[in-house]
TrEMBL record:
Entry-linked Pfam families: Epimerase (PF01370)
The species this protein was found in: Actinocatenispora comari
PANTHER family: NAD(P)-BINDING DOMAIN-CONTAINING PROTEIN-RELATED, PROTEIN YEEZ
InterPro entries xref list: Epimerase_deHydtase, NAD(P)-bd_dom_sf, NAD(P)-dependent_oxidoreduct
Transmembrane segments: none
Descriptive protein name: 3-beta hydroxysteroid dehydrogenase
Length: 293
């Protein structure tokens, strides 16, 4: 299968591309810069130059492929407006892909976050939030899954709050970056709230499995650690960086502040049972031991 991949040089994409190639697929990857193009070519992917906002380029990439994995997302989370722009750009890209693939039964795999449910761990059957700072993304992904009725084998891989590799990535990575900038490993609340996590290479395997075999309109959880307490995450980061650990206002984390403060464990029982997915790489707390001061 030739697979068109966007976001192929990010934390997740840089694991997904080699996973696909190792399984015998070919990859056509969107590259926004010369640096990204070189990295993708070195990994063994064919390169299509363009931006996520370039609809003609996206349409051409999808037309040349047997399936699409959409991973690209903006990197500016500093304000609600910046986050909203990234969500709008991703939503527009998904619309282009679904229009191009309509009636073909080709797979279109996108990404979202795991939902949160008060009082228990979220499952694959729980709906995505459609309000709040990431509500727009929830609405876009829900609409995409509904396009299964139009001949698109759409599916969503729901990622936990931290997708990590070598101690970097996700909410834990944002916490670490802020700690380096401020000199304190700060977290909101009392730190008992739990964040689920997965290693990027384990997530990559699930993206491949979903691409190859998941039914249209389905959602799956790439959750390895159901929920690590934020204060435990902060304690490892503080020890590795040699910085003090303490509470800070949720507003310190910009638009993600309200999410940082939530208790949001999630499970992947259904995903493991149906698709046979089995995480094999280190959990978050172990992986954070790779952090360097």
């Amino acid at each position: 299968m030739q697979v068109f991949v966007t976001g192929g040089t990010g934390t997740i994409g840089s694991a997904v591309v080699p996973e696909l190639l190792a399984a015998g697929h070919t990859v056509l990857a969107l590259a926004r810069s010369d640096t990204s193009a070189r990295a993708l070519a070195d990994a063994g992917a064919a390169v299509l130059r363009g931006q996520l906002s370039d609809r003609d380029v996206l349409r051409a990439g999808a037309a040349r492929s047997d399936g699409v994995i959409s991973l690209a997302f903006g990197t500016d989370y500093s304000t609600e407006e910046a986050l909203a722009r990234s969500i709008a750009e991703e939503t527009a890209a998904l619309t282009v892909f679904s229009e191009e693939l309509a009636g073909s039964d080709r797979p279109l795999v996108t990404v979202s976050g795991t939902p949160w449910v008060p009082g228990r761990a979220a499952t694959e059957a729980d709906p995505l939030p459609t309000e709040g700072p990431v509500g727009g993304r929830g609405r876009a992904v829900t609409a995409l899954l509904e396009r299964a009725s139009r001949g698109v084998r759409s599916a969503a891989v729901r990622l936990p709050r931290t997708v990590h590799a070598d101690g970097r990535g996700g909410f834990a990575g944002l916490l670490t970056e802020r700690a380096r900038a401020t000199g304190i490993v700060g977290y909101p609340g009392d730190g008992t709230q739990r964040w689920p996590a997965v290693h990027a290479r384990d997530a990559a395997v699930l993206f491949r499995l979903v691409l190859e075999s998941a039914p249209a309109g389905s959602a799956w959880h790439a959750v390895a650690d159901e929920g690590d307490a934020v204060r435990d995450i902060a304690a490892v980061v503080g020890r590795r960086l040699g910085l003090p650990v303490g509470t800070v206002p949720a507003e310190s984390f910009g638009p993600f502040g309200p999410l940082f403060a939530l208790d949001q464990p999630a499970t992947s029982v259904h995903t493991r049972e149906v698709l046979g997915w089995l995480p094999r790489h280190p959990g978050l707390l172990a992986d954070l031991e790779n952090l360097r001061p």
